[in-house]
Write a structure and sequence with these properties.
Blueprint: E1 10-15, E2 22-27, H1 42-45, H2 49-54, H3 56-68
The protein binds zinc ion.
Amino acid sequence: MKKDIHPQLNKLEIECSTCSKKHELSTTSKEVTIDVCSGCHSFYTGDTSVAKATGRIERFKRRASAARK
Ligand SMILES: [Zn+2]
């Protein structure tokens, strides 16, 4: 690598603000924050309980059928 033209590469340990899982990251930034990660996103966990618990799907279907009338 050429000297004095590359940005400083930092090794950061970042913490997910949702599930507190720690991730190691190599970045040129000094600070990185994440709201969701592979440890808590429903795509990776296969968990659909959040949408079920809040009833958002049912509410959407109810509103959609009301709008069709
Ligand atoms: Zn997470």
